[in-house]
Amino acid sequence: MPVPVRRLAGANLPLVRDHNSALVLDLVRRNGAISRVELAAGTGLSAQAITKIVNRLLADGLVTEAGRTGATGGKPRTLLRLEPTARYAVGVHLDRADTTVVLTDLTAHPVARRRLPQGMAATPEDALTAIADAVHSVLAEIPDTRRLVGVGIACPGPLDHTTGILHRVTGLPAWDGFPLRARAAGRFGVPTVVDKDSNAAALGESLSAAGTPDDFGYLYHGQGLGAGFVLGGRVYRGRRTNAGEFGHQIMDLDGPRCPCGNRGCLEALCRAALEAGDPARAARLVGTAAVNLVRLLDFEHLVLGGPVVLADPERYLREVTTTIGALLPEPTWQRVTVTLTGARADATAVGAAALILAPLFDTGVAPAASC
Ligand SMILES: [Zn+2]
Questions:
Q1: What angle do CA 268, 269, 274 make, to 5 degrees?
Q2: Measured in angstroms, how far is the CA atom of residue 248 from the centroid of ligand 1?
Q3: What is the per-residue pLDDT across 336-359, written as a single tens digit (0 to 9) for each?
């Protein structure tokens, strides 16, 4: 029986499209509050250009004037801040056993959330129906649904981010080849993106946690094990958008069979450790694989997240940190900072919303390396 379409009103407001506006908006976001003079200095744009861009952002409601700098000899300067209520995004974390739906404001701060007891164990169409109901429910909490920019959906990979089509997600044959983005966009009638849960979590971390560096690896340990790579402030997905299959690196040629068909994948070894009631060993295995990652990509910052990590975060962090310290040959030179996700609750759903918000702040150019 066809499922009735209930389209959302939204995405009619102008988005930031040009490079310089995104540059200015990103500086406002990163600084919290910033003056026009500082924006000119930070972007290299003329005072006249900044005035024009800021006037447009003010007219669109994306920034507001709020407060003044303390006088430092010269006259006080008016500060600009993001207006959180100017835009909203919906983030959906579609997981194997359940689904989380959040509504975030422009700053990726969650303002409403719903948890659904069904996840990808349901048929794709049933799952989408439940998600659509939850999306309508969270949108009822804002006064104007035209401020919705779009819906981001994060789910286990492998998947094609460009087309939004799922591939062979382990243990979920009904979803193999399912055009999730097209079907979801058809239901919602607003821009929709689909990405791996690990990428969404990494992006959410970079947008919502203050002080997150421009380069880091996010290790996500849930029922599966994935990694999100943020390089130069942007998610690195690879040519086929399938980078970060961290859990399927082969650690033991004679190890247990993995559902992917190979033997001794990290994920299979971790699952065996967890089933044996030894989460510390699972964390040490992840720490060992993290050393491989650091030696390949020279990350100096790693973030840990996902349900297995958050079940006992301090112990997981300690095991991973100790393992990295023990296995890296020159830990004092190749120092690695490991932290727990800053956005603990609903981090992946918030990251899914960030998939929609990120283009507002994306200049299309990775920041230049400092020298
Ligand atoms: Zn595998």
A1: 95
A2: 4
A3: 999 998 766 688 899 999 999 988
CA of 259 to the centre of ligand 1 (A): 6
How far does residue 219's CA lie from ligand 1's centre (Å)?
Answer: 16
Angle at 343 between CA 232 and CA 12, to 5 degrees: 75
Look at residue 71 in the predicted model and tell me its pLDDT: 56
Joined together, the tokens standing for residue 70 give 């303390």
> 87 C-alpha vs ligand 1 centroid, how far in Å?
40
Ligand 1 mean position to 222 CA, how many Å? 15
Centre of ligand 1 from the C-alpha of residue 256, in Å = 10
- Give the confidence band of 205 by pLDDT, cuts at 50, 70, 90: confident
| Predicted confidence (pLDDT) per residue in 45-96, tens digit | 999 999 999 999 999 999 999 887 765 667 788 999 999 999 999 999 999 9
The whole-angstrom distance between residue 189's C-alpha and the CA centroid of its chain comes to: 22
Beta bridge partners of 229: 217, 236
Ligand 1 centroid – CA 170 distance (Å) = 9
CA of 289 to the centre of ligand 1 (A): 14
Map tokens 């990494």 to a residue.
202
Q: List the domains of the chain with CATH numbers.
A: 19-82 (1.10.10.10), 88-201+348-361 (3.30.420.40), 212-340 (3.30.420.40)
Task: Note the pLDDT of residue 4.
Answer: 41
Query: Which residue in this structure is represented by tokens 């000899």?
Result: 73
Nearest to 336 by CA among 370, 369, 287: 287
pLDDT at 334 over 90: no
Distance 251 CA to ligand 1 centre (A): 10
Ligand 1 center to residue 223 CA distance, Å?
Answer: 13
CA 250 to ligand 1 center in whole angstroms: 7
Of all residues in the chain, what percent are helix, strand and coil, respectively (each to 5)?
A: 40, 20, 40
